[in-house]
TrEMBL record:
This protein's name: Carboxypeptidase regulatory-like domain-containing protein
InterPro entries from the UniProt entry: CarboxyPept-like_regulatory (IPR008969), Ig-like_fold (IPR013783)
Upper taxonomic lineage: Bacteria, Pseudomonadati, Acidobacteriota, Terriglobia, Terriglobales
SUPFAM superfamilies per UniProt: Carboxypeptidase regulatory domain-like (SSF49464)
Coiled coil: none
Amino acid sequence: MMMLGCSLALGASAVHGVNLAAQRGPVQRVVQGKVTDKGDAAVNGAVVYLKDDHTMAVKSFITQADGTYRFGQLAQNTDYELWAESNGKKSSTKTISSFDSKNSFQINLKVDTSK
């Protein structure tokens, strides 16, 4: 009888652990970085675009004076495309894959702003 009581207590503990994990919800991802020009100077006012390859929705962020940008609350199971534009010039496009297990990405973008 004593053995059965122990078994039930362990079972309740395991179920409790599962409930705690479920309460945390899905882990959100973040991508941030800096937009620079060909000479590595920060580009203030560049527009950074983040395209959700599942819904095709595009978010944008205007860089700060130090060229930084940040997008948060990105889904784990979605691929994203990221690029910057300034003065009619565009950076190369970077991809964030749903197969990459990281939750935080540091992606710097370079835009040739020379005329």
